[in-house]
């Protein structure tokens, strides 16, 4: 949370119950922001997992061609 928002929060806390709605709204906005960031991170981890699987299979086959030719080669 940016320092500016933290300052607003502290000011609102010192003002008491009259600012309960503002404080609630601040945290709801922050929650939405974090949820959006989490969704982006989820997409990123899915891509990374795909790449890990891709390279693991290529390593096991001894070649990246396994993905290009759709053949399965198993090394013992």
Q: Would you tell me the overall average pLDDT?
A: 91
Q: Into how many domains do the coordinates divide?
A: 1
The CATH architecture category equals Orthogonal Bundle
Query: What's the N-to-C terminus distance?
Result: 53 Å
Low-pLDDT regions:
none
Rg value: 24 Å
Silhouette? rod-shaped
As a percent range, the share of strand residues is under 5%
- Enter the CATH topology name: Multidrug-efflux Transporter Regulator, Chain: A, Domain 2
Helix content: over 70%
Please provide the ordered H/E string of secondary-structure elements: HHH
Under CATH at level 1, the class stands as Mainly Alpha
Q: Tell me the total number of β-strands.
A: 0
The assigned structural class equals mainly alpha
Q: What is the count of DSSP helices, taking H or I runs of 4+ residues? A: 3
Reported for the largest beta sheet, the result is: none
């Amino acid at each position: 949370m940016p320092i500016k928002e933290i300052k607003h929060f502290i000011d609102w806390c010192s003002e008491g119950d009259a600012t309960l709605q503002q404080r609630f709204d601040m945290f709801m906005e922050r929650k939405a922001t974090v949820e959006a960031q989490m969704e982006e991170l989820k997409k990123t981890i899915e891509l990374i997992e795909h790449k890990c699987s891709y390279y693991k299979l290529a390593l096991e086959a001894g070649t990246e061609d396994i993905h290009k030719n759709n053949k399965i080669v198993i090394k013992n």
